[in-house]
Amino acid sequence: MVRRERAALAGVVFAVLFAQVLLYPGAADLVDAFGAADPDTGSRWFLAAEFAAFVAFAGVWGVASDRAGRRVPFIAAGALGGSVGYAALAILDVNFGTVLLVRAAQGAATIGAFSLAMTMLMDLSDDHGKDMGAAGIAIGSGTALGAPIGGRLTELDPKLPLVVGAVALAVAGVAALRVPDRAPSGHGDSLRAGLRVLRNRPALGVPFAFGFIDRFTAGFFALVGSLYFREVFGLDAGAVGLTLALFFAPFALLQYPFGRLSDRVGRTVPIAAGSATYGLVVVAIGIAGHVRLAQGGMVLVGVLGALMSPATMALVTDLAGDDERGVSMGGFNIAGSLGFLTGIVGGGWVAEQYDFTTAFVLAGGAELALAALALPALLRLDAGP
């Protein structure tokens, strides 16, 4: 029964990420179809609008779920609301400013399904690494499949990925209603009190910091990486999608075994080992003189990301109280979304103002600096299996 529930919840996480990443390879083509004046700049703000909503609403969904002592209705509502948002973007004929507002509303709904499905995985068992490994497989698989499929769909019609994303989220929302609700009993904390989880449990700042670092790079590759492979190496949208999949495929396939590894050896070793080399590989991709070298770097980044990701998410589960898992995972996703936003907006701005090499060097350097600052706190925490 637990295995079936784990698979169903991972399916919801998969659908959210699959729908999201479908748009990445052809983001510039999509915003051009919406009438954006500058497709490159427009694609940056189109991606950023969703993650701004993630930041604003992840904690709200978590507190609401913790207070109600329920997860399933919120997951279904978030997935179906996100489906409506994708469908609206596909069919509405409005100006680009309105498109960004609809995109933000879609993100506000979608983050509820994503964050609370991960929270329900936290509720399943004491094998937190295994449960978060399942979430990681879903994240990696959704992104691995979304990138190449989205590239191919874009070649047929720039708005077709929106239609497919709407269908995927609708299916996930209906399927979620069949999962038994294992949420702990609710509590009466207010929204303000619920959102104080980091102040009440400052140790959560450690996985939040590494979550920021992890998603920062993902956001950077989602926009700057796509533009880099298109403009420097001349790849089309389909080839860009396949290249992004070189990162996401090992990221997906290795999450579960690395998550189980963290249950045996603790969270510290996988997080520390991955963070020590991640930034260096990012820099290497940006200075690679040949597309095959850059693509090889993408594979290595995927492996290192898979090593860190489930251990980081499991650390949140280890530290959170039973009645504050929703808001704790919401806080983790807020940190991650801020990282993603920084990667998109900051990386895109540097690439636009200077060049891709500078952007990759700064992104990799920032990754190394942030990891170095957070690592001592992780070593002091020394979380066991």
Spatial gap, N to C terminus: 24 Å
- Provide the structure class: mainly alpha
Number of helices: 16
Sequence stretches where pLDDT stays below 50 over 5 or more residues: none
How many β-strands, per DSSP? Answer: 0
* Shape descriptor: globular
Oligomer: single chain
**Average pLDDT, to the nearest integer?**
82
What attributes characterize this protein structure?
mainly alpha, globular, 83% helix, 385 residues, 16 helices
Overview of this structure, please?
This protein has 16 helices and no strands. The chain has 385 residues and is mainly alpha-helical. The two termini are 24 Å apart. Helices cover 83% and strands 0% of the residues. The chain has helices spanning 2-21, 27-33, 39-68, 72-91, 96-124, 128-156, 160-176, 191-194, 197-200, 205-231, 237-253, 255-265, 268-287, 291-319, 325-353, 356-381. 60% of the residues are buried.
Quick description:
About 85% of the residues lie in helices and about 0% in strands.
Topology:
Layout: H1 2-21, H2 27-33, H3 39-68, H4 72-91, H5 96-124, H6 128-156, H7 160-176, H8 191-194, H9 197-200, H10 205-231, H11 237-253, H12 255-265, H13 268-287, H14 291-319, H15 325-353, H16 356-381
